[in-house]
Specification:
Length: 75
């Protein structure tokens, strides 16, 4: 049975990652390809910050996405 995870779980899971991650770092943390990471940001599923030409995802934004995804039972 699928069990809902808490914010504390995701904070522990992402502890070794910086507070603001590049898309490749975020993708590695979520165990998805960089292509999928960019797609999630482009589609607006994960909020991001654009600094110059680069996109960054604050850890809090990623945790919010993971919690919403978990609520909707999306894998």
């Amino acid at each position: 049975m699928y069990r809902k995870k808490s914010k504390a779980f995701y904070e522990r899971m992402l502890k070794k990652y910086p507070d603001v991650m590049s898309i490749p770092q975020m993708s590695k943390a979520c165990d998805v390809s960089s292509k999928t990471g960019y797609k999630l940001v482009r589609e607006g599923r994960i909020d991001s910050l654009k600094i110059g030409r680069n996109l960054f995802v604050p850890k809090e934004y990623l945790i919010s996405y993971l919690l919403i995804r978990d609520e909707n039972n999306v894998r």
